[in-house]
Give the backbone structure.
Amino acid sequence: MNSAAFLKDFHHVATIGATANSGVDRQAATAEDAKTRDWFAAQVRDAGWELRVDGIGNMFGLLEWTPGAPYVLIGSHLDSQPLGGRFDGAYGVVAALHAARRLDAEVAEGGTAPRFNLAVVNWFNEEGGRFAPSIMGSSVFAGLLQREQMLDVPDLSGTTVRDALGAIGYLGTAVGPEVAGYAEIHIEQGRILEREGIAIGLVDSSWYTQKLDIEVLGEQSHTGATAMADRHDALVAASKIILMVHDVTNDFAEGALVSSVGQLTLEPNSPIVVARRVHLVADLRSGGPDIVKSARAKLIADIEVLAQEHNIKVNVKDFDVRPIRRFPEAGLELADKVAADLGLSSRRLQTMAGHDSVAMNTVAPSIMLFVPSVDGVSHCEREFTTDADMVTGLDMLTGVARELVAGALINAQALPAAALA
Amino acid sequence: MNSAAFLKDFHHVATIGATANSGVDRQAATAEDAKTRDWFAAQVRDAGWELRVDGIGNMFGLLEWTPGAPYVLIGSHLDSQPLGGRFDGAYGVVAALHAARRLDAEVAEGGTAPRFNLAVVNWFNEEGGRFAPSIMGSSVFAGLLQREQMLDVPDLSGTTVRDALGAIGYLGTAVGPEVAGYAEIHIEQGRILEREGIAIGLVDSSWYTQKLDIEVLGEQSHTGATAMADRHDALVAASKIILMVHDVTNDFAEGALVSSVGQLTLEPNSPIVVARRVHLVADLRSGGPDIVKSARAKLIADIEVLAQEHNIKVNVKDFDVRPIRRFPEAGLELADKVAADLGLSSRRLQTMAGHDSVAMNTVAPSIMLFVPSVDGVSHCEREFTTDADMVTGLDMLTGVARELVAGALINAQALPAAALA
């Protein structure tokens, strides 16, 4: 199969929004995101497929082999983190385009249409760096988030999703296709496959995750003229909260819980003014829901004590709570067989990161595949996966999609959105 | 004397850029700052005085009684902190306008011109909240900062002083007047006068202050998929530095040192990305230079240890170092006599906050006066000084200015800019 054309396309896409250190910066609905979208649209049109853009900016390239039949979707996302890596998301979209081309050629040659049609998808705003929450486009598509509410979400400068998508011409009006199944390939963003020398990861479940929206309200005052004892410094209290969020992982077994504060804004943010308000977002993730719940309870109790000690107010709100979601066993067995047929080693694993497939798995049987990440690093310019591993993954995705359009998972069930671990 | 007209003007100015909780938000060279500038310009023109705007946005209203004679300057600044108080700066400018009106009327009545002319001044960007460093306009006027360099200073959105002043029409071309002396009245921003029931503070010296520009360089990575042990989280390290800056005050006698971090920016500032870079500004102030120097040395040593522990890079640069500057003894004695003649209690004190008078004192003998602040709070909406105290201060400033234009400090010397405590 033609892997050179795939690699050429992949490395071309990596030039769009390219950064000085081999990364990309293509945050959702920016000019750079628009360029990759234009490239994707041209690929779809050049292949003779129908292009649809829905009301939250998701893009679909439709291969209709059997008029009226539902579609198997394959794809990922072309947006990136600020100074993100070339592979996260883009690999899955470019691989899906090439898998679709291969299958389209097979169908044309074979002369018989598969049971289901195929569509390649580029989901809007998987990263959530500019507009929270992440996994926005696929979650709206899956009915897990409300479209109108998401269109009103502002970035830090106050621009809404609606205005940003409108400005780049990707606030569509089409309705996405009826879905019979979903498959996605992605870099692992961890070290398990690399360490064990395994070609393909089969994701059996996602981690339990949740965020805490934390607002620290102190009192603004003059840094020079206000005695230390008279201050209610929101940033000093926020710093202690950041360290609490970090240190709470030590209460659990190594690797059982990850936590972080990645977003913080400070008001008034003046060098000679004691801060009146700090807003920050904490992120908690674990394979065990009880671990997250226990860490959250400890943080809330500790924050309450801190607020009293500092005589300031701290508002804490839960948001973006994502239960463990299991991918269907039938899909895992199918992927295992495809890998074996291709002579590829594979193993099951959990994903700590969120993915569009986790949202899609609530509306259709979904298969999530990983290829190895060098050093396990991700969301940074140093993110890397070899050409050989990417080509192997393309073969794997093609094989899985071939089975899915043939109806291999016709008896599998999507996971109910409300199903908790 | 007509104190009602003064109070009417003061409370009118407080409506420009007024905030919901009785404060003002008039950061340097914003639309709100422009409105107070327009008001100031109209006051100067209506009084028949000459208006000059210099190349860093300082505004002068000139009362030329004796052609060719140098000028005594009186004034302060109309810009504020974000969500700042009504009194800080604006009180001194409005009081100076009214003191000048009173003296102008006296000169017209008396028929003999004083030795020096008088000018009312509104200094550009005393606060430094939008453009660092603070005390910018008076420092350029005094030759302590370079005009061209200051015009290139950007705010957090990248707009330079040059563009911001140009946009509001206050990047002037005039040269300020030749200076024979300077007087400024300001709220104390501390609790000494209130606690002791004293009407007027006579500032004998400024505190030693310095800032540290601290850049924390970690590595960007995925919050979910990166193990805690593999992270180089710039925000966790920065939080520890913020607490170090706070806690270093405990190494010294109570009240001997104040410190703070009031400005911080985070990159990429995405909820699901471990921060790669945090930039923050620490502020250290003390009546004793050795205390600041000792605190700085401890912080730099502790930060070095921290950087090694976290395997990240921290760059620390000194900037905005301001030595203790003493106001001339002759000026203090003069002010003491004026207060006594008015039947006002007064005492000497140090200023922990920076003021335009500290810069002006390096080019001409300067007198800095305080009126009481309720609860000592400042740089916030809760800042407050009574009408009665403001009127008392206006009388005091008028008396001091009357003596200065008469030549009372003709034998006093300005403090050389290089003079350290």
